[in-house]
Amino acid sequence: MEQAITLARGPLFALAFGIMVLGLARLVLLQVYELAVGKGRRLQNAPWRKIMGETITWALPFKHFIKGTLLFSSASFAMHIGLILVPLFLADHVAMWERQFGVNLPSMGRGMADVLTLLTLFCLLVLLGFRFLSWRHRAVSTPTDYWLLVALIVPFASGFLATHPGLNPFRWEVVMLVHLLSANLLLVLVPFTKLAHVVLFAFDRISEIHWQLRPGAGDRVANALFGSEAKV
Amino acid sequence: MAKSNRLLKDVLWILALWGLVAGGFRLWFGLGATTNLTDAVPWGLWKILNMIAGVALSTSGFTVGFLVYVLRRKRFLPLMRMAILVAFLGYGCSCLALLFDIGLPHRFWHPFVMWNEHSFLFEVFWCVILYFTVTTIEVVPTILERTRAERIGKFLHGIAFGVVVFGISLSSLHHSSLGSLFLVTPERLHELWYSELLPVFFILSAMGGGMMVLVLLRILVARWYDPEPIFGATPAPVEGAESTVPGFPTLNRNVRGAGREMPMLANLATISAFILGGYFVLKVVDLVRTGAWQFLAGHGWPGPLYAVELLGGVLLPVVLVACRPVRRSPLGLGVAAFCAAAGLALNRLNVGIFGYWPGAETTYVPSLAEWSVGLGVIAAAGLAFLVVVENFAILERKNQPVGAGVFRAAFDAFSHVYRNALNSGLHRVSLIAVIMLPLAWVAMHPSYRDVTGGGRPVQPSQGVDVARAVLRIDGDRTGLSVDFNHADHQRRLGGDQACVTCHHLAVPGDKTTPCSRCHRDMVDPTGIFDHRHHLTAVAAKAGGHGALAGNGTCTECHQEGAARSAVLVKDCRSCHEKDGWPALAGADPTVDLAVATSFQTAMHAVCVECHKNEAVRVAKPGLGDCGACHADLRRREDSLFAVVAPSRD
Amino acid sequence: MSHGETRNHGQDHAILVDVTRCTGCETCVAACVAANGKDPRQAERDRATVADGLSADRLSSIVRVGDGRFARKSCMHCLEPSCVSACLVGGLTKTDDGPVVYDPAKCIGCRYCMLACPFHVPRYEWDEAMPLMAKCEMCVDKLHDGQQPACVAACPHQALVHGTRDELLAEAQRRVESDGKYLPHVWGAEEFGGTSVLYVSDVDLATLDWPADTAGPIPHLTDPLIEKTPFMGITVASSLLGLNWVIRRRMKLEREPETGDESRTEGENDG
Fold first, then answer.
1. pTM given for the model
2. What is the C-alpha separation between B221 and B255, in angstroms, rounded?
3. What per-residue confidence (pLDDT) applies to B580?
4. Which of A12, A92, A172 has the CB atom closest to B622's CB atom?
5. CB contact under 8 A, B434 and A38
């Protein structure tokens, strides 16, 4: 058990992290290659300012409030805070970053981390609830949407239990191993599932305008954006 | 009819990428950290497989060049470009692997200006470099064809005959010299392989085997790209016949259906078989002449290895080629050629690696990193070969890979972009790289060696009751041991605070502290006898004087005329009859140890166990890590290998 | 460098090892480690882990050659060294006064010297990223200053003697003949063409990789071949040209009665 933990925390983590970083780099490079080689000419006329503006508005929840998806949008937004901060800045994780890569990050307090973790877990459960209970969400959900949420819940829940022995009904080693393995799995999943939006969100607007629409759609979009004289 | 070689390409990419990582580690961490080479086995896989076997396997440029240009056998002309390509890539791949192998790669140019004309290695270096240049000159026209620089290519083609003659002369020199390299090790190389005829053996086997490699590659290229010249013009299978060999069309059994290049290949294989036959006879005669045949039945690996190499790798292909139906079928000829090529490679491995096992008294098995670089370089050459075959007129025409034209563009959810014929190769290769590079990194990085490959875990205490135990230490492993009173040493050195005094004398990486660390003046470093003290004491007793007093009294203890060594001296008890160490009286020596344990081992059981338990109890996993106590340790390798120097304040 | 021709080595620096006097105290090794500026702690570690105790940080060692018998093992400084003829950049040299010395500035790290040495003496700095070879150089700087090699100076039992090779051969012969305990053989007088380090002993020294029967100098196995190399190259090239000419001529003659034109264009194409 102890050896398994050492293995998961050392080489397996390095492996998963390496696959994630290289995998994301590959996605970015493929996107840029596609855009540069396939759409090089047209990109010159792309409305960069508008694209950036849209990307930012889309990422923030305020616009969605008005549309009446308040709970879902704010849960989705709040979930991301803990999702990004806790893996990076929890004291235990800071030690791990240092051991693996020699990087020294500032660390957050245990209390702060607990609050963020519980918030993230709560938001994830809310999102999962929406998927199950709201027919509108169920209609557009694929199986991946469900189990990716579970894959996010497991490392957070097991991590919380591992740091709170009083609440933990299981053996510490088992919980720790589950935490490590599920977190490693999550890292590997990032570049190969829709979690890839950690880097690809930046390309979404460009893609939508230029090549993710049906044949002929480009002309209509161009018409809408630049008037009837515009050519794609 | 042609079969896709996409899987093969994937495998080649995987090997090449692993080789890339391993090569990087080799350059960064050095030879010791990445290879299993030692002082006893200084030459390993890279030299033997990549250089010596690789060069031998790519002999075809020289032999086919001889047939076509010198003997003017024009029928082999269709093979000429491929033969030269094989030679170019084979030699290039040998040179590349050597850059990883030599200790100081940035000095590879030294032999150009620093000459030792007595060294066979020097001759091999020059011949290989010059021949590599020759093959480059010969390959370039093919690459430059139909480009703007075609005129350079035409000029190079114009001087081809002179270049070929030069190349053949070089080849005939260095292929035999590669054998001569091993002439200097008569007392190390196993008798089955050592012979003054090694240079002759090397050039004969290289000529024969090299042609077979070309035959094999020609058949494989036909299978992957354009089967017609080899497998015949009518690709329809024989009616109703099931293919007995998966992948090979049943048609091939029909000899008449074989393609127009088959007779030429059979002819080349026959020439090769004559050379290999002569080689076989010569080997057998030499075996009888030197009397080494008696080692064939000897115990261990050499006998069977020799038999497999000579029977399976030389005799079998000769016999196969001699059979007319086998020679005329692409499958039969392919099998014969494969046997000959494998036999040639095995011969070089035998001479360079296995033949040294009995002499070196150690078994050298190449490390993962060595295999990775060795095979990775070959894989890279293979990929380059396929690229040239697909894009340039190496054979009669360009060869597009199977399925190249039928690609349909589609959105690839896995890569999040459109995939089309233009970028599908990029998709595939980058995906392989994303998974393989980290995997290779983790599998071969020296700092993970302990976790991934056994390693040395923290040892629990041996359970010695140091307060009472008398340790029996046999430091030099002679069977003669010294009784070591631990409690007595501890008391005299300062009680509870004294552990560090002895155990921390172990330098980083040590597991043990030899007695000689303190008892510097012992006659035999691991004995316990203080010679200098006896010298003066005995001399004083015997009435000697001065610093040289002892010289007159040697015979007080040492026998007159006998060797003055520890064994031949008077028994201690003849003088020390009444002396006895009170602490030892009545104590039974209970523990046999080789040497005193290190501080790490002695103390870790006390600290580590408790730390681990507490880590679980209070749920602070960091408490069980080495870093909990050794704050200055960062990387794993430090925490496992090194003992922290004791703080002196 | 003196291959082939036999220089008279009588006045070379040499060392005589008398195994009967060696007590295995390793004082010489400690002196060697210090004289070569090696790390004594690493040397100590190598003593425990390497079979014969030789390493890049420990250029000489004490080997147990029999029950209670020890012998110093180090470079034998052969009169016709295999390593010198093997090194492709000439990084190893037999100096005119005996020692075989190494030039680290030339070394490319091919390790052929390690393969070529019949005594397995050259060692490699495996742990370095930029490794060099290491071996005993008989303290050549001390010799030039008129001093003895460090090991000889340090030996407390006169088991090591320094002198010219002629003197020491005579002394070895004298010891062997005068005292019955010695085996009647001076190791190094003839083996591999003779060495500059000589051994007399009362036990057999096969442990030190001395050959059972007197073997000749190793360069003599390769020199006759390599001297012929330029000759062979020229022979091969000229016979290729000759062969080609004959065959081309024959083909031309065969074809000429039929079509004269074709053979000419053929010739042009081959240029």
1. 0.75
2. 20
3. 42
4. A92
5. no
Residue of B nearest to A14 (CA): B442
Residues 212-271 of C with CB under 8 A from B: 215, 218-219, 221-223, 225-226, 229, 232-233, 236-237, 240-241, 243-244, 247-248, 251, 270-271
All structural domains of chain C with their residue ranges: 13-217, 228-270
Question: Could you state, in order of their start, the residue ranges of all structural domains in chain A?
Answer: 2-226
Domains of chain B are 35-231+250-366 (1.20.1630.10), 470-641 (no CATH)
Model confidence at B582, in pLDDT bands (50, 70, 90)?
Answer: very low
**Looking at the domain A2-226, which fold is it?**
Fumarate Reductase Cytochrome B subunit (1.20.950)
Phi/psi for B129 (5° steps) reads -65, -45
- Residues of chain B positioned with their CB less than 8 A from the CB of C110: 101-103, 121
Query: Which residue out of B80, B118, B196 would a mutagenesis test of the C interface target, given it has the greatest number of C Cβ atoms within 10 Å?
Result: B118
Q: Per the CB < 8 Å rule, is A15 touching B627? A: no
pLDDT in tens, A94-104: 878 887 787 88
A6 neighbors A14 (Cβ within 8 angstroms)? no
Listing DSSP states for C122-149 in one string gives -EE-TT-SS--EE---TTHHHHHTTPPP
Instruction: Compute the distance between CA of residue C205 and CA of residue C210 in angstroms, rounded to an integer.
Output: 7
Instruction: Give bridge partners of residue C14 from the DSSP assignment.
Output: C163
Instruction: Verify whether the Cβ–Cβ distance A102 to B634 is below 8 Å.
Output: yes
pLDDT at B467: 46
Selected residues 554-573 of chain B with any CB under 8 Å from a CB in chain C? 561, 563-568
B635 or B143, greater pLDDT: B143
Q: Which CATH architecture has domain C13-217?
A: 2-Layer Sandwich (3.30)
Lowest pLDDT segment from B40-54, B282-296, B421-435 = B421-435
Rounded to an integer, what distance in angstroms lies between the CA atom of residue B291 and that of residue C256? Answer: 56
Looking at residue B334, its pLDDT comes to: 92
β-pair partners for A110: none
Whether the pLDDT of residue B445 is over 80: the answer is yes
- The least confident of A83-97, B412-426, C16-30 is B412-426
Q: Is it the case that residue B505 has pLDDT exceeding 80?
A: no
